[in-house]
Design a protein that fits this description.
Layout lengths: L1 H15 L3 H11 E9 L2 E4 H15 L3 E12 L2 E10 L7 E9 L5 E10 L5
Parallel strand pairs: 1-6
Antiparallel strand pairs: 1-2, 3-4, 4-5, 5-6
Helix pairs in contact: 1-2, 2-3
Length: about 120
């Protein structure tokens, strides 16, 4: 479980990195070059694709961060964890979701599937 927690921690750090260059570097270290990220609003390949999606989230929700909810779960080469997007200073989550990551034998992420449980209402 320690490796699972380390992967989740690194993945969340990528999402919470406000600096685009540092975000891209961290994504390149954790993800394979062909890693596919797919969720209800994005379908991209590679670390740069994920870093760009995350940049869009930072633009849409400035001053917010991803925070894991509960414990990560894993079996074989797959792990899942739930998360919420919350204001930096605390408060109610604006998005809640679950991500499922597929890992290579050496612990890199080769696929990510995201699901939303709560999304902002359209205004």
């Amino acid at each position: 479980m320690t490796e699972t927690n380390a992967v989740v921690r690194r993945y969340v750090e990528i999402w919470n990195q406000p600096d685009g260059a540092l975000r891209a570097k961290a994504a390149a270290e954790l993800l394979t070059g062909e890693c596919r990220f797919v969720d209800p609003i994005a379908d991209v390949t590679g670390p740069d694709g994920l870093a760009a999606v995350i940049g869009g989230v930072h633009e849409r929700f400035p001053g917010h961060r991803i925070r894991p909810i509960g414990e990560a779960d894993n079996h074989h080469d797959v792990l899942r964890f739930s998360w919420e997007l919350v204001p930096d200073g605390g408060g109610e989550s604006v998005v809640i979701g679950t991500d499922v990551l597929t890992l290579t034998g050496d612990g890199q992420v080769e696929a990510i599937s995201g699901f939303f449980d709560k999304v902002p209402t359209a205004s």
